[in-house]
Amino acid sequence: IKFVCHYNDGVDQHMIWLIGLKNIFSRQLPNMPKEYIVRLVMDQNHKSLMVVRNKNNNVLGGITYRPYLSQKFGEIAFCAVTADEQVKGYGTRLMNHLKQYARDHDGLTHFLTYADNNAVDYFTKQGFTKEIEMEKERWHGYIKDYDGGTLMECKIDPKFPYRD
Ligand code: ACO
What we know:
164 residues, 32% helix, 26% strand, alpha+beta, Aminopeptidase, 6-stranded mixed beta sheet, binds acetyl coenzyme *A, single chain
């Protein structure tokens, strides 16, 4: 397997992976409107960190986020692993790759996400808390208000080697 990060840049292979990821989100996040998922995954302000099986080039899961470069934080929009591959550690490895990638390529120091209630435990294990440390002026008005989820924050360590 390999971890890759791409956005809708018109490269055929990147689009094929993004469509594969969009299909995983549609299946794993049934409460999210499909058009909304497509719109954000294909939006050029969003990037997706994906885990890909080398053998058949299939996407197994991923995380779509929007980096707010001026504010140095990222908003995680969607996160999922395909059903057959859950609870094998890919969700943890994806988040570790994402933290390192966003720190080293985007200069981010924090992530925010609205976690589904059934995903709060997963995000807690990945270092997210319900206490928001960032000053409200830094993020308020940037991320969309959304009820039906718990706002959670993760601080990215400036030096830690997250990647395995
Ligand atoms: N029920 C209970 N515990 C779980 C579950 C589950 N369904 N899935 C993972 N865990 C636990 C694992 O046991 C593990 O705990 P451990 O570290 O103590 O062993 C930990 O969470 C991480 O497990 P991974 O194998 O790394 O996670 P996985 O590859 O399964 O990915 C994910 C986790 C992304 C939440 C996956 O289960 C999934 O796609 N779920 C459905 C979609 C979803 O709910 N996504 C999040 C919505 S919120 C949002 O997108 C902003």
